[in-house]
Amino acid sequence: MSNAAKSSTNAWLSLLLAGVFEIGYALAVGGSEGFTQLTWSLVAVVFFLLTLYALSLALRTIDVSIGYAVWAGIGAVGAAVFGPLFFDETLTLAKGIWLAVIIVGVIWLKLADRTKPEAVAAPAAEPQATNRPGALQV
Amino acid sequence: MHWLYLAIAVAFEITVAIAAGKAEGFKNRKWTGITLASGAAATFFLSKALLTFDVGVGYALWTSVAGVGITVLGALFFGQRLNINKAIGILLVIGGVVGLQLSGSA
């Protein structure tokens, strides 16, 4: 593999890992019961730092809007699917459908950030970390 | 009360997005500090909201409404343009939240 391909593979692995950490974060925050359960609270803090770190690594290579879309999507789908496994929750058909609409909406929204005129006009040069308009391009 | 906690968590999450953008890859200490503090506050209020909401529901509401807020604030105050795709995303999220609420799942 070329260096570029290798760095891209690593970035996508980091992004998937960040998504998995985000699921862990969501579940742990839920399990912490308002941060009254010590173990779950500590797990939540660890996942919070891990997901931030893995996401920041991934976004050095992957386009910010694509990165956020994938990350948010994995986290939201994972929380909906695994919540009922860990807690006293149910995923009914109606709930699943409306959650899917919301999750598609947020992925769509993140991807829409990419279609800015300057992003389209700019040549496909390597992103400059120092020059990036910011994590969420606000 | 859980909707209020969720709203506060969303406000802090929007702050995280704005602060992270100014933190320049976490090289700017002040904005990095604001990012982490806001993230901690968002997490705390999300956990309060999740005392009532299911994890999957509360988390999806939190991240998606924050996403809508970031897009709307970006258009209002940060000179970003709303386009048809952003409008579709916003409508999907709002429609999903309303549907979830009307179906009694939230």
Automatic annotation (TrEMBL), chain A:
Q: Which GO terms describe its cellular component?
A: plasma membrane
Query: Where, subcellularly, is it found?
Result: Cell membrane
Per UniProt, the keywords (alphabetical) are: Cell membrane, Membrane, Transmembrane, Transmembrane helix, Transport
- Topology term for the membrane: Multi-pass membrane protein
Q: Which residues cross the membrane?
A: 38-59, 66-87, 93-111
Q: Which family does it belong to?
A: Belongs to the drug/metabolite transporter (DMT) superfamily. Small multidrug resistance (SMR) (TC 2.A.7.1) family.
PANTHER family listed in its UniProt record: GUANIDINIUM EXPORTER, SMR FAMILY PROTON-DEPENDENT DRUG EFFLUX TRANSPORTER SUGE
Q: What is this protein called?
A: Multidrug efflux SMR transporter
Automatic annotation (TrEMBL), chain B:
Any one GO molecular function term? transmembrane transporter activity
Domain of life, source organism: Bacteria
A single GO cellular-component term from the record reads: plasma membrane
Q: Where are the transmembrane segments?
A: 29-47, 59-78, 84-102
What membrane topology does this protein have? Multi-pass membrane protein
Where it mainly occurs, coarsely classed, is: membrane
Q: Which UniProt keywords apply?
A: Cell membrane, Membrane, Transmembrane, Transmembrane helix, Transport
Does Transport show up as a keyword for this record?
yes
Record localization:
Cell membrane
Query: What's this protein's family per the entry?
Result: Belongs to the drug/metabolite transporter (DMT) superfamily. Small multidrug resistance (SMR) (TC 2.A.7.1) family.
Tell me what this protein is called: Multidrug efflux SMR transporter
| Species this chain originates from | Streptomyces globisporus
Write the lineage as a comma-separated list: Bacteria, Bacillati, Actinomycetota, Actinomycetes, Kitasatosporales
